[in-house]
Protein 1
Amino acid sequence: MGELYFKTKGLTVGYNGKPLIRDIEFGVERGEILTLIGPNGSGKSTILKSITKQLKILAGTVYIAEDDLKTVSAKELAKKMSVVLTERMKPELMSCRDIVATGRYPYTGNLGLLSEEDEAIVQQSMESVHVLDLQNRDFNAISDGQRQRVLLARALCQQPEIIILDEPTSFLDIRHKLELLSLLRKLTKERDIAVIMSLHEIDLAQKVSDKVICVKGEIIARYGTPAEVFQEETIRELYGIENGTYDPLFGSIELGRPQGTPEILVLSNGGSGIPVYRDLQKQGTPFAAAILSTNDMDYAVARHMATEIVTAAPFQPITEEALDRTMALVRSCKEVIDAGVTIGQTNQAMEEILAEAERLGKRKKVKQHDVLPV
Amino acid sequence: MGKSNPENGYDLLKRRLRCETVFVLLILAFCVITVLNINIGSVPISVKEIARILFLQEGDATQMNIVWRIRLPRIITAAVLGGGLSLSGFLLQTFFSNPIAGPFVLGISSGAKLTVALTMIYALSWAGHVSSFLLVLAAFVGSMLSTGFILLVSSKLKNMSALLVAGIMIGYICSAITDFAVTFAEESDIINLRNWSLGSFSGMSWDNVKIACIIVGITSVCVFFLSKPINAYQLGENYARSMGVNIKMFRTALILLSSVLSATVTAFAGPISFVGIAVPHLIKRSLNTSKPIVVIPACFLGGAVFCMFCDLVARTAFAPSELNISTVTSIFGAPVVIAMMIKRQKEKQ
């Protein structure tokens, strides 16, 4: 692991001299992405504004390449750090290439004329984020996704060692979010740039970041690798999630489970139950799921939605106890949904359960959804 | 690097050609209007005569007098002050990131008008004479006061239209006070004032022309050397800061320079409306860029041409009586501003 390129020590940030967040300590190496997550108004932007010298630092120190940020002149800093901001700019009559070319500011002479070398860097920056075909277009006339990429090209054109992005995915649809983040991922590695950004999408933050900071109110709630930070409880607490759950494994968010005693029993495995769970959850019907091996993907989803789950240990035969409990559910529930059960050597008992449901006239077969392409 | 797809080609040449065309046309218009301005009047002077008078300094004595004493100073005044006014508008538009900002709408001209009027009335009644330098100084103080007030308001109101309304209100207040002062002033003190407060390029002595040229010239060169930070500032304050622009110093420079320009114009020619908004807009549209390094000189040239043209109309349309210069600039400038606002509204939708 290399040296930390950019780090903070006992940093306190806030507006108008009023501290908002204290004792912020984090660091990022070149080639790494550090992401700030946290609810709206938690202070992500305040931190980013403070480390880019837009806001005055209230206490503590920020180091960039070993130097105290306070002692680095604006001009020197511009050669090391570039930004992509949330504010929507409306420049008049500027082509995308004009916008990107402003990134050469710290390198050009008194009149800001671009040398041939500057032009080549502009060209190459636009190529690397695939916006060269937009170069003659008016910046105000392109889509949000294109705009963010042009702004990223502008940031690259400044030839920085660190880029700071404030919610770069805010106005983008899912395709453009993915595009932008994978570009960022690629460029950080290729060009050995450190990246600090804030993101709303925790699922994407988990997948794109090397380090994550949870910002909430007074202090930094957590700081670490995605694996350390993305724990179910951490995320629930950070965002104050009450009506739903967060799955750290997939980085997905599920709505809360229906409350009450199970009215329906869903029999499934291997993913066939998931669409049924979602339907029942949307209807608000409490349900039970059986008999799921704890490494079954149905189990991973049912965990967040089912009122009760009857489980089996992976690759082990179904226990007596589990069978009894399921039989009891078959009798107590109004309906038993057979979402498609694959039966093999370890779950022969499922045959019995299905037969019992059939006998009681409660078995309802649903068309098996293709969860995974076969 | 790699393929040079013609569709991907950067139309640098096309853009350069467009800029060059605009500049050539402006210079051509400048020359034609200069000649017309000398040529047309109560005593028409032929082009051949003009050339002789200007370059050889010989010819009919009356005509020599008319050209050298009356028409030429007036043309130069119109050109220099028009250029300055247009630049001042461009600077204010940059500062407020609002294309409708200008020294007249923001009440800056009116502030200068007020202090100049007061200076004229009181200095005349005390000293019997007002130096042009004192007038410029007074105008500068007035425009700085108005600008200061506008800045105060703009720190409280983020809304741009509210800012413009505030500017127009300042304009009314200043005009009201000016009228008040004029009403109670001695008749003999205000003969010049009446003419001046309506706006005119006439009656400039060579001394005044020199002073105007020096002030506007130096300021305009300073503005030109600000084109790099202006370009960065067009992306917004925060981006500019991230590129290493010292925002505080830059903003102060913008305000000072635009105030000096509009103050000089007001001191010599009175308040002139719409030039500051209409000309930069027309220039940017015709250049199809807002790059300050080309827009600044083109704005100056455009402002000069526009004011010389308006002055020609003011002088000749209802000869022998003359129109106020502001009347003419409004007639030509206001429709441009209205068209611009409608276009912007359309672009928003």
Note: Chain B is about 75% helix and 0% strand.
Protein 2
Amino acid sequence: MTNSRKILDAPDFIRTVNRLSHEIVERNRGASSIGIVGIRTRGDYLARRIASAIASMEKVAVPIGTLDITLYRDDLRGKLSQPRLNTTNILYDIAGKDIILVDDVLFTGRTVRAALNALMDIGRPSSIQLAVLVDRGHRELPIKADFVGKNIPTSVNEEVQVHMTEVDREDSVYVKLLQSPTEKE
Amino acid sequence: MGLSSRHLLGLDGAPKSDIELILETAVSFKEILGRPIKKVPTLQGKTIANLFFESSTRTRISFELAERRLSADVVNFSASGSSVSKGETLKDTARNIEAMKIDMVVIRHNAAGTAHFLTRVVQAAVLNAGDGCHEHPTQALLDMYTLKEKFGSLEGLRVCIVGDISHSRVARSNIYGLRTMGAKVSVCGPATLIPREIEKLGVEVYHRIDDVLPKVDALNVLRIQMERQAGGLFPSLREYNRFFGVTKDRLEKIDHPITIMHPGPINRDVELSADVADGPHSVILDQVLNGVAIRMAVLYLLGTTQ
Amino acid sequence: MPKKYLLQGGRFIDPSTHTDSILDILIVDGVIQSMKPSIAPPSDCEVIDLRGKLVAPGFIDMHVHLREPGFEHKETIETGTLSAAHGGFTAVCCMPNTNPAIDDESIVHFVHSKGKNVNNGIVDVFPIGAVTKGRKGKELSSIAELVQAGAVGLSDDGAPVYDAEIMRRALEYASMYDVPIIQHCEEPALVQGGVMNEGLVATELGMPGIPPVAEEIMIGRDVQLTEYTRSRYHVAHISTAGSVGLVRDAKKKGVRITCEVTPHHFTLTDDAVRSFDTNTKMNPPLRTQTDIDAIKLGLRDGTIDVIATDHAPHSLDEKEVDYLQAPFGIVGLETAIGLAITELVVTKILSLAQLIEKFSTNPRKIIGRTIETREGELANLTFMDLDAVWTVKTSRFKSKSKNSPFEERTLKGKAIGIFNHGIALVY
């Protein structure tokens, strides 16, 4: 497709994830206090990649969990079709942990806002840090990522598409021009 | 993605996909009920009226808890002490409530069809919390959820509903729901408490509890209402207990464990002996917790659609 | 100056004289002066064009609740007879479950004279007297006085005469005057609290049922009493296959029994109750397709003599409550002919002559108010259009009440007018 450009290919993608993992370990002086939480769906896969990267470099198992933020969204009423509710699955106690919240794309910040509320309802971590693969700008809330894989300047009528082999054919990131302005998430 | 209807009136005719969606959604809410903070902001700004024209502590509390845990505003309206007793019609009550801009109505009434009637007179989404002897869909859904949790699947599961089938909305909703989900359903009770032609709903009828026990995986034991005895439908509670009571002795004769459910409140040692109700195969307290999760799921699914 | 009408070109069917031909009918001051294939219109004559239409001896609905005195918010003699007129009826029999009940000659006189004074008396009102005082089933009412005052039959309709001894004596007493006892057939102990037919649908809906045997047991008992007392007995609103069989067998044995069916009992089944529309709640309740099939057979073979509506008006407020609380009954006068033609004539269950028998000849014979349509007699006629396709709109009903389950139903065939007591009403 002509109005679609590739930002990261598979090797870039893996390098970026590894760099993010290193930065997280570095900033937290190891992995002993870390817990990772991925936001469904691709944030969750990304979280698993980061967790296994950290585990292999630090030789410790990093606790990992999945967060479904549907119940905390501020746009449930405006949706035409109801999002399917998934389960939050965090089997470790997040209290006192440095929680790395992982998502694929940081856009308006609303998803992160919902995730922060959801996390706070589950327990009281000592800190929450945000790691994203792509920051595409256009923030609507005062939210900033601690770890960014790649900053990609975009216009509002573009869409950032993250593909991961867990659910897609390849690891890659595309920016695609939309016919009509995207519904912001 | 959502339910096929904007109301939940019953399980008669409800598509399998709707029941599956509710049961799946309830899994997420059960997880929330295990958290330190058991509340989510999902229905913030929504107002739900609980119209209880018939007294029911348990169902009302379960609904109210579910509503509050979804952060909805809750208005309670019960028949005693309200204008209903002053001869105001159901329709007037409903219209008044509508004028107060209520988003959802949960209704319990002693006449079949009142939830259906409400959908014709108000705009709000209507959730049937029991209409006469007709349906009590959330009870059946929580029963099915409990069975699914225990057995993994409802397909082919053998469930017998024991007791006063004629006057039971729980029995009817369970029959409709379980049949749709592929379970094998039977009923057992005195002939005077089994409604005519019920076998046409695809259930087997038994009048001897010992005949059905070897053939089932789970029993749903219904509360026997004392007033049915006064109505001449069975001779005495003692006789009922001797011939239809679910007791340890009876269950011990069966070579496989039978899961015991009861919608509550239990008449101990009438329809169900105390040691069975509190025994290892009883899931009665799970039903109570699952009830909140199921009601949260239904409220979420009905409350967030257009 | 005499008032003259020429009814032109209608197809006139009268089963009592085996007539079926296209005739012009000249009526002068209410009396038929001439019936011929072609009559030249005299001067000062109003011509009613009935070409392509059907003309029959005036229809009578022998089972109507006019509600007056006592329940005028539901219906009055005036609105009820207007409803009858617009439904194609020139006469109604009104049931005595008024307040006070029609158990005294003064009330018969009241209803009778009120009937003459409303709507120019175009619809004859024939009161049915109560069998027992206050319809309480305990003591016989003054049957001889009621009959003398003009009561054409006796009934405690709305409730059965449940005491076998009282029923026996009522049959005996009424037989002196050759008026029928019209029984609302149900064994009360078997009905208690029931709101619909007992069967699969009631089982599915969890509603208290009225078993068919409740009706059949009462008919069975009464047939024996009628036979034993050699009296005359009429079954109101028959509703079950078993009942049709009982009546057929009794007739074969020579028992003087007749019966009627309502249009809703040959049109709707208890499936209609699934809507929870309280306009599907009536007593006897809507039954099953098996019952409808038996009723249609009974209509065809003559077991069922009469079609009557059991017109039972209730106000909107009374009906717009939950199903258990709602009163029994629906209005029927303005849909009866349409339903009968649609369900019975179009489907070839009944011939037109049979239809007219059930709406006119037979019921008039049962209550002893026969009419003859020939030169020199009073013109008492119903006009119909068999081909009219129309949709029921309860808002257009002349009845004070609109409690009909047939709203928005499309029917084929309707009444288009009546003629009685020198007055033509064509709508």
Note: The two ends of chain C are 25 Å apart (CA to CA).
